[in-house]
Amino acid sequence: MSLPTAETGARPRSVGRSVAAVFAGFVTVVVLSLGTDQLLHVVHVYPPWGQPMWDASLNLIALSYRIVYTVLGGCVTARLAPHSPMRHVWILGGIGFVAGVLGVVASLPMHLGPSWYPIAIAVTALPCTWLGGILAVRRIDV
Fold first, then answer.
1. Do residues 88 and 77 make contact, with C-beta atoms less than 8 angstroms apart?
2. Phi, psi angles (nearest 5°) of residue 66
3. HSE, side-chain direction, 13 A CA sphere, residue 111
4. SS3 50
C-alpha cells in the first residue's frame, strides 16, 4: 500500500544554488559596470584610469548605467534563485550596500571625484536590486 503524497510544487532548497544565484547577480553588476567603464575610458569619454573625474555629467552617466546594471543584477538573482527569490535579492542588495559604503569610506579621502557619486552608488544598491527582483518575479508569475 502506498500513501498519497501532496505535491507542493516547491523547488528543493539548495545552499549551493542560492549562493550561485546571488553570486551571478553580483558578477553581472560588476562585469557590466567595469566593462562599460573600460569602454568609456578607451574611447576617451572618461579620463584615464586613476585620474580624478570631477565632471558631474560624466558621473551621472556612470551612475545611470550602474543603476540599470544593478536592476539587471537583481533580475538575474531572482530568476536563478532556487526558492524565495526576493530573499536572495535582498541579500544581493545588502552585499551591494555594504560594498558601496566601503567604497564611500575608501574613496572620499582620495578625492577622485564629487562625494555624491560614491554615496549615490551605496544608496541605490537596495532599491535597484529590489526593483530587479520585482520585475523578475512578476515575469515568473505571468
1. yes
2. -65, -35
3. 0
4. coil
HSE at residue 41, side-chain half, CA atoms within 13 A, is 13
Q: Say how far apart CA 113 and CA 109 lie, in whole Å.
A: 10
Residues 36-66 have pLDDT tens digits of 999 999 999 999 998 999 999 999 999 999 9
How far apart CA 132 and CA 142 sit, in angstroms, is 16
Domain ranges in the chain are 25-141
Separation in Å, CA 93 to CA 39, 53, 99, 113, 131: 26, 26, 10, 24, 10
For the chain, the distance separating the N- and C-terminal CA atoms, rounded to the nearest angstrom, is 39
126 contacts: CB under 8 Å, gap ≥ 6: 90, 93, 94, 96, 97
Do the beta carbons of residue 46 and residue 113 sit within 8 Å?
A: no
Alpha-carbon distance of 32 to 40, in angstroms, equals 12
pTM score, two decimals? 0.87
Residue 103: which of 38, 31, 30 has the closest Cα? Answer: 30
